[in-house]
Amino acid sequence: MERQSILASFGIPISPSSRSLNRNAPRRDTSGSFAGRSSTRYSVTALYSMAAEQDVEVEDDLAKAQKRLRDLKGRISAQSKKNFVLERDVRYLDSRIALLIANRMALDEKQEVESHFEESDQQVVAFPDHRKMNQYGNLFFLLQTEPRHIANLCRLVSLTEIDTLLQTVMFTLYGNQYESREEHLLLTMFQSVLSAQFETTNDFNSLLRANTPVSRMMTTYTRRGPGQGYLKSVLSERINSLIEYKELNLEINPLKVYEQMIKKIEEDSGSLPPELPRSVTPDVAAANSDVQAIIAPRINKLIDIANSFITTIIDSIEQVPYGIRWICKQIKSLTKRKYPDATEFMLCTLIGGFFFLRFVNPAIVTPQTYMLVDGNPGKYPIRTLTLIAKMLQNLANKPSYSKEEFMIMLNPFIENNKQRINKFLLELCEVGDFYESLEMDQYVALSKKDLMLQITLNEIYNTHALLSQHLEVLAPSDKNHLRIILEEIGSAPTQVPRKENKIVELPLFSRWETPIQDIATALMSDNNVTQNDITYMETKSIFVQIIRSIPRIANKQNIDLFAIAETAATANDATLVRKGIKVKEMLRELEEAHVINRKDGYKLMTEEVAQELVHLGNLREKVNKEINSLESVYKTICDHNNYLRSQLDSYKAYLLNVRQQDGTGGPGASVVKLGGKEKSQKIKVLGPYKFTHTHLERDGIIAETSVPENRRQNIFFNITSPVPGTFIIALHYKGRDAPILEMDLKLDDLLEKQQDNVLSLDLEYVQLNVSKLLQLLNKTFSKRKA
Which residue did the predictor score with more confidence, 725 or 668? Predict the structure, then answer.
């Protein structure tokens, strides 16, 4: 099948003219490209450079680093998917547990909640039916390589269905987040989705703002590895330096400032003067001279902090992931197409709505959920970060003060930075397109015999069901490939229980495209690339591989191709011998064809080999730098996974408590059914378990302490669970039998505090971090309960 037909079937733009790589003369320019080459539609040079970079038989430092980088990227992609699933579960359970705590949840609802705790067996297994496996392999290859189908489906599903579909699309179908082909196909899908959104939305002010499947897609995209890595590298240090100042109160809402002022006066003097009523209107609070005096320096401080954030973000433009920038570019392009008279301000409003509202600001407001900080920031830093995010959003969009008039006071920040931020947002859009490289990637994909997709059974069945539900819109024609496949597969199977939701490996293939057996031959037939061109590039690639495999050659200043070939041909390594003999023969063929000349020492090829080695040397540095960066990303994602799991563990412990309390036969007893008869069984008291002050402080469970430093080594805590879901924390001083203080805690209370974003628990002498205390209780008592 001709290249144009292949690419058109994938939905890749084809230019009107398909200029070739034809080269009638052997002359080359000094850059290493064919002098007669008149197109960059795709490059044979690039193809063989990829082979030189990633040859499996080469084991030098670069190859090892590349393997490590590929493994790391794979782990990030897999972990990102796990986190997405956990986040969805936590969102669901947050709302349901709230009802359970309030004793308003029916039994069937409790069982539904409990099903979300079931762990699926994540082992890779064979698909239950070989014929169905092939049909689904054909279906998912079609969905992956023709993104318009998924783009249309994402617009048709409901908000309740979108998360499950996005899990499959973002983290499975295009789950290799750092692999160019899948990333570019995913962006092509975004292009279709955004185009349709612009076509169907008539009100400019509602574009990309409403909570729709499209907006959810864009937000989910930013949560993939590259986006998380950017936020970590750019914002983490800035946010951490701010939250160190736990007592820095920068509240500027006059009403809140007035209330805080009144509270402080009461604490200091015990009463309020008559001219200061306890409750006032916002206008009265704003007119109070003392309130104004408190707010004025805070505004200056807030503007300084916001300016530092802006500078950091603007300076990071080269670090912004390509996909984020390309989406910004599409927003700009589509806006200008639909609104030809759109001003620069209108363009930047929409671009900023995506970049700030859906990407940067959520991380600033809740840095703990993005793992940008350790632990939970205090209430004052959290409020400051919220105000900073509001300032950035007002800067990116037209400020609206209808709900928060006090934000008008920050207008100087808007006026001083508006042009600066608009310039940044427009520069975000200045990235090239990827169609030519995607063209090559798709071409290469047709030559692969082992293109596989790891996907769970429920992802397959859910996608199948959604496609079938909307088939008349997605594929109205009987000749449509999507309709043909779905009609052959039949109706979608029902979802399997979570425990049975296995991962299967689908071999991806196209029944309508002819597999490419030999890329070189295909390129020759489609592009007038001669056999001499192919031989030249292959010869150069083999020389690069040989030099990389023999360190003593790689360290030499001068490159003697004939001597290198001879060294390889007489080596002890069978692979090198094979390559040496082959490359000597290829040199002879090229010389006979007058492409190269031994008399000048194969000058042109020698120069190109030298350039390739320089490129690979630079590549090694780039790979190592990327590894260091991604290791930090991977750690962040794993930390977030642990955080999510700790929340689920808290819910599990609570549900266990509910089940046991529902069957109590009296204080400290539970009812157990044996052979149809009920038998009262005494519940075992768990604990006490001892923890030192040093231990709890080191692990961040003690957030603040008023215990003098020289006495902390003598302080310890005993934690006991007399009945499930109830804990007694006793603070002891060495040498004394009786505790200094005791506190009874209910698991319900701790969960409610966590839901209400109450960060700490006051134990008089120490403040305990609620989330980390929950983790400690789960870790200490859950296994022992079992």
Answer: 725
Q: Which residues have C-beta within 8 Å of that of residue 607, sequence separation ≥ 6?
A: 30, 32
* Mean pLDDT computed over 120-144: 82
SS (H, E, C) 613-664: HHHHHHHHHHHHHHHHHHHHHHHHHHHHHHHHHHHHHHHHHHHHHHHHHHCE
Over residues 345-361, the pLDDT tens digits come to 888 988 998 999 889 99
Q: Which of 165-169, 187-191, 425-429: highest mean pLDDT?
A: 425-429
For 59, phi and psi rounded to 5 degrees? -125, 40
Q: Could you tell me if 235 and 184 are in contact, meaning their C-beta atoms sit under 8 angstroms apart? A: no
For position 675, what pLDDT does the model report?
Answer: 36
Name the H helices within 405-555: 411-428, 435-445, 457-469, 471-474, 481-489, 519-527, 531-549, 551-554
- What is the homologous superfamily of the domain 223-428 according to CATH? GTPase Activation - p120gap; domain 1 (1.10.506.10)
Map out the domains of the chain as residue ranges. Answer: 223-428, 682-785
Helix 130-145 to helix 457-469 angle (10° resolution) is 70
Question: Which amino acid does the sequence have at 648?
Answer: L
Which of 520-529, 674-683, 751-760 has the weakest average pLDDT? 674-683
The one-letter amino acid at 212: T
| Cα–Cα distance for residue pair 420/777, rounded to 1 Å | 50
- pLDDT at 7 (0 to 100): 38
Q: Is the peptide bond before 688 cis (omega within 30 degrees of 0)?
A: yes
HSE value, Cβ hemisphere, 13 Å, CA-based, for 389: 22
